[in-house]
Amino acid sequence: MVEKDWRIRLKKAIPRVLKAVILSILFYLILFFISSLLGPVEDFVPLYRPLTDVFAAIFIVLLFASELSHGTVFHHMFNFAKAFLFIIYLIYVLDGGILPLSIPASARPMNVVVDVRVFLTILIFVLALGLSKNVLQTIDFLSEKMTEDQGAKTLHSFEGITD
Q1: In this structure, are residues 119 and 98 in contact, taking their beta carbons and an 8 Å threshold?
Q2: Number of folded domains in the chain?
Q3: Which residues of 111-136 are buried (b: 16+ CB within 10 A; e: fewer)?
Q4: Spatial separation of the C-alpha atoms in residues 94 and 7, rounded to whole Å
Q5: In this predicted model, what pLDDT tens digit does every residue of 34-92 receive, in sequence order?
Q6: Cβ proximity of 27 and 63 under 8 Å
Q7: At what angle do helices 73-93 and 48-68 cross, to 10 degrees?
Q8: The domain containing residue 14 runs over which residues?
Q9: Buried b (16+ CB within 10 A) or exposed e, 86-110
Q10: pLDDT surpassing 60 at residue 162
Q11: What is the pTM of this model?
């Protein structure tokens, strides 16, 4: 009986694991392609590459864990963590909205300061909507579970009365 239960769980877990692996690999390939396109930007922002690699690694782990835990409350928690990580990453990479750039010129480098605080603020507000969506999905998921548990208890108590 235990061996049969183990096989059933394995059959349910294999599609989840495959989906999580495929999504993780796909996301890695997309990030690799985008990072190769943004190679020339490395001259202007030298810390861009190592930070992006760390962000990608953490994001892929959270993506894998989120897809693996689909149908549980952890799925929503990992999605919240992904959205929060993305907000923190953007704030850090964009240096709070003020970007000092050094453009190499023939005689001497030209220093330029780009102020993107308004753009960053709008982006953070849009991403905060994603955070709130994840919180509401978590609340909805927990309330559905609570309703299912209450319904099962009520049904079980009615069955006891009729016996």
Answers
A1: no
A2: 1
A3: eeeeeeeeebeebeeeeeebbeebee
A4: 49
A5: 777 766 766 665 556 677 778 888 989 999 999 888 888 899 999 999 999 999 988 88
A6: yes
A7: 170
A8: 2-162
A9: bbebeeeebeebebeeeeeeeeeee
A10: no
A11: 0.75
